[in-house]
């Protein structure tokens, strides 16, 4: 998988599959099941470190888990999250993105829209591939007052769409859109030439991502957009079922969407 392949998948109408992994064992298993993208997500704050949000995740955490994941992965594209405060200005963004690339990521992801213009542009200038993250942004949980569906009213829906178009213009390669109405997920996906990867954003996104611990039913009281694919106790089958369900558009169903 490389960056060009992502756009080709969108153009051909084939859905993109993505799961989070934070270590070599899961990365190897997902890679062998032919997942398209492995996201070393800062959700590791919740599922690995046991914290109640992602704000405690450091660059050192991300480097450690990116190295462990990337080392073993042969086929999937590796995207690594830039943690809270690691892209506070252009210089920090460039320095920290380089550290993640050196740790084995092929692309970095960070949360936010047009307010991060200088950060997107400096990475584009230095040829570092970037994945955006719009809609629900877990690193802004304190400001948002909780994990809430975004883009429900016309004003915020227009803002998210305008952010997505700006990111595309600034050379971003793909955008994760989290927890927005399915109708808006479809509108954004149809408005962009770059692929969108949805999580709680409806079936019409160009791809789907889940936190692997959610997909395997480990997380207690998961959000509505999660489906537990571990039906027969076999992690490989669960992964293959997730990939198949995304590829044939049966996941997410209406009951997983807003
Ligand atoms: O950190 C993460 O796992 C993510 C996904 C929720 C998309 O950003």
Q: Can you characterise this structure?
A:
48% of the residues are buried. This protein starts with a helix and ends in an 11-residue tail after the last helix. The protein has an 8-stranded parallel β-barrel with strand order 1-2-3-4-5-6-7-8, surrounded by 8 helices. Helix 5 packs across helix 6 (117-125) and helix 8 (154-169) runs parallel beside helix 9. By secondary structure, the protein is α/β, with parallel strands linked by helices. The chain has a single domain, classed as TIM Barrel. The protein is globular and about 45 Å long. The protein has helices at residues 3-12, 24-32, 44-47, 59-70, 90-102, 117-125, 141-144, 154-169, 182-191, 212-215, 235-247, and strands spanning 16-20, 37-40, 77-81, 107-111, 130-135, 174-178, 196-199, 207-210. It binds 3-methyl-2-oxobutanoic acid. 3-methyl-2-oxobutanoic acid binds at residues 20, 39, 41-43, 81, 176, 199, 209, 211.
Short description:
With 258 residues, the chain is an alpha/beta fold. The chain is built from eleven helices and eight strands. The chain has helices at 3-12, 24-32, 44-47, 59-70, 90-102, 117-125, 141-144, 154-169, 182-191, 212-215, 235-247; strands at residues 16-20, 37-40, 77-81, 107-111, 130-135, 174-178, 196-199, 207-210.
